[in-house]
């Protein structure tokens, strides 16, 4: 059983045709089918871009509570979520009763003003809320999303290759993707052990998560059949993990592994998870190379949006009726 998270080096390029891509795909398949997590090195997100995004997040969270609340999260799941306003009741790995000790600003995929889904008010299709009092925030985050999204799309191609598919076989599911960039702040927690967590044990909803974390530590992962292990920060890497939808897509060949955050660093912790998911109407059904006579499909086909909305409705206070 693995007691550490493997590292996959992409070699500094995002070209699935180079020989290094085949090696990375094989290493990624091994990591995602055993522990469901991997450190990603040799990526193309520039350090200056990442540093600027972290600086923008810190500046936002240092703003007044009144300013942050002016961007309160809306029905399109964009905006500020205050401290202790999400409780992961859909967790399949723990009975969670206490809200997460964190606050965050949620940014999702940007849409042009004439986008049909936006004009129709479809779920998750709305404008982002930007802190206008911080003129450098939007440019920093927009550039960051551009670079980390390119990395995420390359990871999807490596996943396809690792499953015996053409590198571009899954690309069309991401023509109009559902993406989330969450600028998270975890205050320090007391060193005394209790059941309060920065983020309670959970699995992610979607396809892949690319996490940039500061040097505070606190992320823990629970491999299948094992106990919690640390996922310490490694400079210039991302922590990649499988989401529930990718596990379903691969007939559980890839593992959506529980993880949690407990900030015992004595200081504030900041992280930037980026979630790259398909379009809301994308049908997720067992991939052809992940099933045979001995391994029939384990799950009924489901649209990504149907699955996502069910979980958001249960886990976030702002989506519940006032009298619930």
Automatic annotation (TrEMBL):
Keyword DNA repair: no
Any matching Pfam family: DIOX_N
Catalytic activity entry: L-arginine + 2-oxoglutarate + O2 = guanidine + L-glutamate 5-semialdehyde + succinate + CO2; 2-oxoglutarate + O2 + 2 H(+) = ethene + 3 CO2 + H2O
Domain Fe2OG dioxygenase: start-end pairs: 177-278
EC number: 1.13.12.19, 1.14.20.7
Catalytic class of the enzyme: oxidoreductase
SUPFAM superfamilies according to UniProt: Clavaminate synthase-like (SSF51197)
Family matches, as InterPro entries: DIOX_N (IPR026992), IPNS-like_FE2OG_OXY (IPR044861), IPNS-like_sf (IPR027443), Iron_ascorbate_oxido_reductase (IPR050231), Oxoglu/Fe-dep_dioxygenase_dom (IPR005123)
Keyword Metal-binding: yes
Keywords associated with the record: Ethylene biosynthesis, Iron, Metal-binding, Oxidoreductase
Coiled-coil blocks: none
Pathway: Alkene biosynthesis; ethylene biosynthesis via 2-oxoglutarate
A GO biological-process term: ethylene biosynthetic process
GO MF annotation: an example: metal ion binding
Family designation: Belongs to the iron/ascorbate-dependent oxidoreductase family.
Name of protein: 2-oxoglutarate-dependent ethylene/succinate-forming enzyme
């Amino acid at each position: 059983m693995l007691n550490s998270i493997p590292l996959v080096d992409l070699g500094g390029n995002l070209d699935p045709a180079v020989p290094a891509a085949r090696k990375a795909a094989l290493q990624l398949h091994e990591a995602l089918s055993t522990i469901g997590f991997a450190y990603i090195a040799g990526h193309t997100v520039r350090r200056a871009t990442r540093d600027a995004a972290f600086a923008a997040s810190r500046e936002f969270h240092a703003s007044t509570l009144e300013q942050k609340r002016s961007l309160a999260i809306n029905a399109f799941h964009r905006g500020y979520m205050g401290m202790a306003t999400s409780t992961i009741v859909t967790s399949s790995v723990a009975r969670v009763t206490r809200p997460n000790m964190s606050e965050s600003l949620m940014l999702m995929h940007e849409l042009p003003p004439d986008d049909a889904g936006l004009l129709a008010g479809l779920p998750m299709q709305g404008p982002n809320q930007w802190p206008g009092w911080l003129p450098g925030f939007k440019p920093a985050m927009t550039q960051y999303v551009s670079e980390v999204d390119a990395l995420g799309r390359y990871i999807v191609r490596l996943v396809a290759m690792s499953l015996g598919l053409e590198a571009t076989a899954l690309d069309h599911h991401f023509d109009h993707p559902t993406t989330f960039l969450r600028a998270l702040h975890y205050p320090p927690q007391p060193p005394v052990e209790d059941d309060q967590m920065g983020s309670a044990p959970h699995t992610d909803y979607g396809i892949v998560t690319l996490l940039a974390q500061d040097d505070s530590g606190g992320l823990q992962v629970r491999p299948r059949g094992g106990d919690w292990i640390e996922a310490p920060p490694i400079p210039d890497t991302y922590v990649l993990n499988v989401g529930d939808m990718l596990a379903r897509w691969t007939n559980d060949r890839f593992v959506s592994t529980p993880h949690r955050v407990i900030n015992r660093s004595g200081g504030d912790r900041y992280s930037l998870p980026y979630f790259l998911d398909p379009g809301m109407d994308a049908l997720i059904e067992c991939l052809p190379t992940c099933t045979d006579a001995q391994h029939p499909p384990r799950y009924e086909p489901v649209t990504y949006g149907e699955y996502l909305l069910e979980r958001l409705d249960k886990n976030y206070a702002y989506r519940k009726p006032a009298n619930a």
